[in-house]
Write a structure and sequence with these properties.
The chain contains 13 helices and no strands. By secondary structure, it is mainly alpha-helical.
Length: 224
Amino acid sequence: ISFNASIRACGVFRLWARALDLMARMRVQALRPNIITFNAVLNACEQCQSWADALQLLDQSYVLRIGPDIISYNTSISACARGRRLSNALGLLRRLSADALQPDAVTFGALLGACSAGRLWEQALVLWRRMPRERLTPNQVMHNALISAFQSSHEWVLAVEALQDMLQLRMGDTLSFNTCASACEKGQQWALALAILNDMPSMGVEPDVISCSATISALARCQK
C-alpha cells in the first residue's frame, strides 16, 4: 500500500522517473505490482508527457502478468495525445479493441484533443463517425474538441455546422462559441464571427473576456 501511495504522489508532482524506479524496487523486493500500481505509474508518465515510457510500460504489462484495463489504455492514449503522437494513440485504440476492451468517452476525448493539436480535422471526423458504432453519445467536451479540430485547421464551415449540431442538442458553452467564432475569424468571415458572439446571451451562454476581445476584433474587421 505504501508503494502505491508513493507512486500516486509521483503522479501528482510529475515525478515519472521516480514512479518507474519505485515499481522496479517493488519487483526487487519480491512484491508484485497490481493494476493500481501499474495505472499510477502510467498516470505519472502521462502527467509528464512521457509517452514513450508509457508505451514501453504498457508493453511490459504482459511480462508483469498485469492485464491492462481501459484506464491503462486511456492514460497511455492521453500521454501520446499530450506528446502529439496521434499515430501511436490510434495504434492503442486498435490494440485495446484487440484486447476485448471497449473504448469510452475518455478514449475518444483524448483522441479528438490530439487531432485538434495536430490540425487533423479529417481524422477527427473519422473518429467522430466511429463513436455511434461504439455505442457512445458525444458529450459537450467531445463536441468542443471537434470544433477545436476544425478551428485549428481553418475549417470554419465545419466548425459552424458542429456548433449548430450542439445547439440542437441543447449543448454549447462559452468555449463552444469562442472557438467557433475564432474559426470564422481565421476564415476571414468576420461578420459571421460577430453574429455568433452576439448570439451568446440569447442562447443563455455567458460571454467572457475572450468573447469580448473577439467581438471587438471582429467588429473592427467588419468596419474596414
